[in-house]
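Morning!

This is the sequence you dropped in the shared folder:
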Amino acid sequence: MKLALYLPNFRDHVTVKELEDLTARAEELDFDSVWALDRIIVPEASDRAALQFPFGMMTDFPLQMPVVARGKWFQGMPLIPWLAAKTTKVRIGMSIIDTPYRSPGVLAAELATQDHLSGGRLNVGVGAGWMPEEFAAASVPHLFPRRYAHVRETIEIMQGIWSNELFEYHGEFADFELSGFGHQPLQKPGPPIYFSGLKDAARSAKRIAKYGLQGWIGIQDSPEDIRRWKGEMERELNELGRTFPDGFDMCSMIWFVITDEPVDQTPAGKGSNLLVGNARQIEDILKRYREAGLTMPLLWPPFRDVPTAKTLDDLKQLTEEIMPKVEAS
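The structure's back. Tokens below.
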């Protein structure tokens, strides 16, 4: 099982120094990767629990973001080249890029540049977005009903630009003649693409099969959720005459805190304490995750109330004390 850090660039208050310290700790502990979070806005309506949809359109969450509208947080995309400059070993990426907020061709070319800046360590996570208010803030409210199609075209354009010195595309969201976009990525045929599909296993499987995607990213998934998602996608792939690509990553963004005393881990949907508990609880559930097929948890520090210094200690304890027991089981 690989470990990844989900940087808390989206929380009520965060500083560059905190992000720098967390990233350095992940690199020091030989984590596989560090991921930033893509968020454009927090609507004021969120503070009143009056969003149009719950987070990720998942009914286990309220009509409210976990960060206040006046929160002091950082945009995710500008952090990627910063992470490239701050690290030498860990892979870097954003989980996930909401593609409708970006022009597909511009995004593809910028990601190719980021792959060079990182020395070929870029991961690319893509998804459709879920918040109409954010689509409005990104000046693309008209794309909300067609957001899944936008993801498909973006993947096709990224793979086309990354694999060809000259490329043209004529679709619904991009229409350009044969053109060059500068450097192709260092990684061939391009950085691995991870897909975040939170609702439909069949849609995820079709994307994996058609585009050769390298990973799937969920959120707050229990071991039972991981086993179900993997099984459903595997069945769908088999019906398409395909299997998971070699080295395929099953991932989930999961809140992470090591406590002194045991924590109530009674299932509560997406709000469950999964990787929140004492060392023995964390060890036990990581063993269950490994058996279920989770290959890489994205460890997600809390939005508030847990100092960064505590998270730094927790990451070290997890790596040095807990993971050896998980791997030895």
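Headline: DSSP finds ten helices and twelve strands in the chain.

More detail when I'm at my desk.
O.
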